[in-house]
Design goal:
The chain is mostly helical and about 45 residues long. It has helices at about 5-20, 25, 35-40. Helices cover about 55% and strands about 0% of the residues. The longest helix is centred in the first third of the chain and has 17 residues, at about 5-20.
């Protein structure tokens, strides 16, 4: 598996972890599955 894929997966997990602690965000958004998150573009 390419290093970029692992790094991107780690970053997405970290982002979701911290967004969970933002009440205004965690009370308004629900994520189903992970396909949409995989399509996020992170310039590198």
């Amino acid at each position: 598996m390419p290093e970029e894929v692992i790094e991107k997966d780690y970053f997405i997990e970290l982002l979701l972890f911290y967004l969970n602690f933002v009440k205004s965000f965690s009370q308004k958004f629900i994520f189903r599955g992970g396909a949409a998150l995989k399509k996020i573009y992170f310039p590198g």
